[in-house]
């Protein structure tokens, strides 16, 4: 850094002020050639990762042909880190790098329930900076293993509401950067296009019989994905509606229905990756058309129904979205409407074998999925949605 000054013919009383007619120029140059070289290389590596990756698949969920309805799942589990959060982590890193927030040798810290941390650990390793995930102690062991596999460290908290505060304090203590996905998710992604998830969906649907979906169903963790999709739909003037399902122990539904930005929940979501105990800054309520409150048992039943239908295990957040998408499909059948519906396959089920695919875990949680499984079976065989009963 260099500082130069040019003094005129009259006196000065401080930097940039004068007592006469001639000003003094105060010039502070913080150019750092080594940092800029590091920054260029870091951005190149993150962009190259995207360039190496093909687009994710749009899978078809089998429905009776007579219904005239197509249901798709955007399979985000095929990203290098295995989840929808790979897109978010890439956007967050590019945003933070280009803002000058991430610096060589200093740690990146994130408050995360798992998948975002896995993906951010990957990008931190890619550009050569340390990574620390601040997460609830109940996070699945498999996600912790994946974070550590990518070179990250896990920092546990007992109270999920303390994640934010602990992350900020840890960043202050270490001189690192708190990525803060819950604030920056909705602004880090270019929602107008640039191969975001919404643009990708529409490109992949171009040759389908219903290229403009009636509904896109997107669950919310940060709220960034639903915001990106909704904004793109509005910007492109599509008629598609956006539905955001919310799991138990999350406040998004209550905050949205009551128009209450201070809505909160006193405990964390059992469906990892979605649902929050507070209204997050990245959740954009005004952009979406509909919300559903989905019981956790319904989410698990839908996960298992997906495996039966297409032979793929998926995480609980996929189940939450699929349950809501199938409910929308049932409404279209009842009304005699044709069209398409799109939801997300957020991450693979092998991360949750000890949870959503474990009958012992379900019993310990007091979750009975049988009534919800019956609802789905009845729908797929008869086209009729019958609400679960005990």
Automatic annotation (TrEMBL):
Enzyme Commission numbers on file: 4.4.1.1
Enzyme class, broadest EC rank: lyase
Designated name of the protein: L-cysteine desulfhydrase Cds1
Residue positions where N6-(pyridoxal phosphate)lysine is found in the record: 85
Record-linked Gene3D superfamilies: 3.40.50.1100
Co-factor requirement: pyridoxal 5'-phosphate
Pfam families (alphabetical): PALP
């Amino acid at each position: 850094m260099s500082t130069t000054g040019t003094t005129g013919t009259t006196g000065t009383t401080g930097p940039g002020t004068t007592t006469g007619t001639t000003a003094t120029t105060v010039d502070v140059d913080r150019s750092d050639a080594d940092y800029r070289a590091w920054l260029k290389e870091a951005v190149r590596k993150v962009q190259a990762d995207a360039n190496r990756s093909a687009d994710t698949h749009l899978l078809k969920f089998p429905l009776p042909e007579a219904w005239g309805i197509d249901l798709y799942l955007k399979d985000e589990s095929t990203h290098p880190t295995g989840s929808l959060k790979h897109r978010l982590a890439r956007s967050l890193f590019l945003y933070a790098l280009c803002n000058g927030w991430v610096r060589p040798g200093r740690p990146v810290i994130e408050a995360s329930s798992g998948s975002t941390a896995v993906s951010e650990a990957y990008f931190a390793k890619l550009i050569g900076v340390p990574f620390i995930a601040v997460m609830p102690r109940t996070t699945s062991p498999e996600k912790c293993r994946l974070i550590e596999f990518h070179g990250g460290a896990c920092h546990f908290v007992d109270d999920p509401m303390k994640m934010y505060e602990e992350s900020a304090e840890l960043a202050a203590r270490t001189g690192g950067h708190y990525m803060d996905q819950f604030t920056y998710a909705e602004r880090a992604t270019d929602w107008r296009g640039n191969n975001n998830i919404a643009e990708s969906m529409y490109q992949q649907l171009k040759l389908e019989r219903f290229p403009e979906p009636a509904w896109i169903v997107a669950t919310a963790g940060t709220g960034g994905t639903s915001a990106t999709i909704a904004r793109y739909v509005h910007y492109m003037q599509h008629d598609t509606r956006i539905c955001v399902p919310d799991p138990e122990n999350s406040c998004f539904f209550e905050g949205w229905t009551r128009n209450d930005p201070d809505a909160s929940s006193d405990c964390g979501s059992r469906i990892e990756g979605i649902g929050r105990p507070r209204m997050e800054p990245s959740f954009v309520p005004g952009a979406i058309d509909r919300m559903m409150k989905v019981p956790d048992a319904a989410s698990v039943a839908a996960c298992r129904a997906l495996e039966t239908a297409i032979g793929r295990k998926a995480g609980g957040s996929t189940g939450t979205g699929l349950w809501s998408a199938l409910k929308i499909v049932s409404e279209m059948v009842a009304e005699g409407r044709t069209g398409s519906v799109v939801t997300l396959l957020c991450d693979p089920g092998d991360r949750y074998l000890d949870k959503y695919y474990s009958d012992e875990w379900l019993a310990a949680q007091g979750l009975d999925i049988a009534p919800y499984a019956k609802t789905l079976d009845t729908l797929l065989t008869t086209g009729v949605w019958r609400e679960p009963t005990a």
